[in-house]
Amino acid sequence: MLQGEFTESQIKVLEQFVTTATGDVFALRNLPEVIKGALFSRYSRSTLGLRTLLLKEFILNEDTAFAAIAGKQADGEGQMVAIQKAQNFYDRILDGYGDDSIGELGGAHLAVENISMLAAKVIEDSRIGGSPLEKSTRYIYFDQKVNGQYLFYQEPVLMTSAYRDLYIDTCNHLFNTYSKLIPPLTALIEQGFPKDPAISKGAYTAALRAKVLDCLRGLLPASALTNMGVFGNGRFFETLLQKLACHNLAEMQEIGKNAYQELHKVIPSFIRRADPAHKHHQGFAQFYETMRSDLRQFSDHHGRDIPPFAEPGVRLIAFDKDAVAKVGGALLFNYTSGGLLELQNYCRQLGEEDLARLLEAGCAARENRRHKSPRALEHAEFTFEILADFGVYRDLQRHRILTQERQPLTCNWGYYTPPEIRGTDLEKEYCDAMDLAQKAYDTVAAELPEEAQYMVPMAYNIHWYFRVNLRALQWMCELRSQPAGHVSYRLIAQEMARRVSSALPPFEKFFKFVDFDGYELGRLGAEVRQEAKLKGPQ
After folding, report:
1. CB 201 within 8 A of CB 433
2. How many CB atoms lie within 10 A of CB 523?
3. Angle at the Cα of 132 (from 129 to 137), degrees rounded to 5?
């Protein structure tokens, strides 16, 4: 059957599942992920067009249980039963290609609710193939109670240990302080930055609330419950599930178990290797545990004499001094017939003025930060080491096109006190809560260091590193320095741009949309613009 030679009845059938039965460009619709993934798998090794393939090998093939899975009468329960019945068919197709990228042809939206902020970071650490969205500490008050209890994770090891009461009392005290300081801090900031008559009350109130909650989020413990939405392909979820199952903390294992159970209902063929009974998962688990054990043993022996990094802020610890010539050669590559090595050697011989003109040609036309620079910038890489509060890490960690790793949460490196609180009557209560949390953490961490992380307030500093190319760094610094951003991560983004510009001055021109200004009510401009959009043209 040739594409385009469908009968009238076939066109009616196909139009339920494709956006057009005649055009060369079309989208799929009304198809479960397992069918879409298997269909695209077959598509890569077939002479047939996708619609012909869909009709011939899926709709008309009894082995696929297509009508039960995707038909008009298919309901949720019946669809799941049909998918299970046809599982061998789909697994045979997906396994038959022996390519892990097949796992990227199907995806799912997963909601993960009532998990700790610590767990949210573990999930978001799986970067490629997934898009997470987490409940905001800026727009949502976190002092709500359910049945008279603040919402924080009841870590099972701690809850059955001698530290149970200390854990609960510490978390409750942090939440109480957070809740107690909201009204006086709101009044204090409102007094310092009264509403401009030209600004609407709604925009001002939203910006004021964001400012207050940005200041106080540091009081929230890592155990505070949050919600997440995650969209990912099958390959992403398979890897995530394996990592969660191998994690030392009970919460991660439970999330992994529940996520596998629910994802198995919608994309079973794509996550089958994450089944604890599957040989691939068992092999991964053995590798992961052996690796961790060996590294821990080596670290215990050799790491004790290495001085800790305890200076808050950003330091640039590695970069290629030859990066300017490498980026220049890569910029020219697409416009000449020269080899990359020869072009980069040529750029090494260029004078400063000509090299500057070449780099300028690669960025002069950018009119805003959304005009993404060419891939040539990826030839320059930088490694940053950062010590900043956990709240900053939560925001910056979400950038996926980079290599990153963090050390465990502790209370060892000090904490961040917002300038709006310093020197006011509120500072003592804030600092008292931090000191109380540190004493509790020190007590628990002596025996249960991993579980003690749940007690650490977000204001305490955490140590991590980024290895990132210039193109991704440009995007991150320009995005995270915008006026609406949290003041703490704005400073980190600004400093990263400064460090690179200082180390390699010719690259400074690539950071022209980094905002180095300071703002008192950073969200105000964004709230005004959003309000105007909602109102529409006047």
Report:
1. no
2. 24
3. 160
Please count the other Cβ atoms lying within 10 Å of the Cβ belonging to residue 3. Answer: 14
pLDDT-wise least confident of 56-65, 189-198, 342-351 = 56-65
Give, to the nearest 10 degrees, the angle between helix 426-445 and helix 164-192. 160
Q: Which domains does the chain have, with CATH numbers?
A: 8-105 (no CATH), 108-303 (3.30.1360.170), 320-368 (no CATH)
Of the candidates 517, 453, 486, 475, which has an alpha carbon nearest to the alpha carbon of residue 155? Answer: 453
108 DSSP β-pair partners: 232
Residue among 83, 15, 86 nearest 51 (CA): 15
Query: What are 492's two structure tokens?
Result: 């980190």
Encode pLDDT of 30-64 as tens digits: 887 777 877 887 787 788 888 998 888 888 877 77
Distance CA 524, CA 199 (A): 9
The DSSP secondary structure of 281-344, one letter per residue, reads HHHHHHHHHHHHHHHHHHHHHHGGGSPP----EEEEEEE-TTHHHHHHHHHHHTTSSS-HHHHH
Helix (H, G, I), strand (E, B) or coil at 6: coil
Burial category of 163 from C-beta neighbours within 10 Å (exposed 0-12, middle 13-18, buried 19 and up): buried
Rounded to an integer, what distance in angstroms lies between the CA atom of residue 130 and that of residue 174? 32
> Shortest CA distance to 219 belongs to which of 167, 274, 178, 271?
178
Give pTM, 2 decimals.
Answer: 0.87
Give the separation between CA 266 and CA 76, rounded to whole angstroms. 10
Residue corresponding to tokens 């269909």: 39
Is 489 in contact with 392 (CB distance < 8 Å)? yes
